[in-house]
Amino acid sequence: MRGEQMNRxxxxxxxxxxxxxxxxxxxxxxQAPQPDEGTAAHIFQLSIVALVPTILLxxxxxxxxxxxxxxxxxxxxxxxxxxxxxxxYYLEHDYYVGH
Length: 99
Hints:
By secondary structure, the chain is mainly alpha-helical.
């Protein structure tokens, strides 16, 4: 497999994993607080762990002659992760306390 092809695939995977993490946190707003971690928490944790090697693969195969093309998946991933962790913080510290 060529480096460009690996970069394109890993770019899609990092976006998918970050959106998956965001969606699992958002799903917590639609269910009652659980005394223990549920399936969504484990999916969130696994998606975050899987992001690390995938981002490293993306960076290793990136074409830095065209930095905007290489930065776009990273930007989308970063935005989704910031939203996911902000939503998780609010869910655990404010939302569940009020409900």
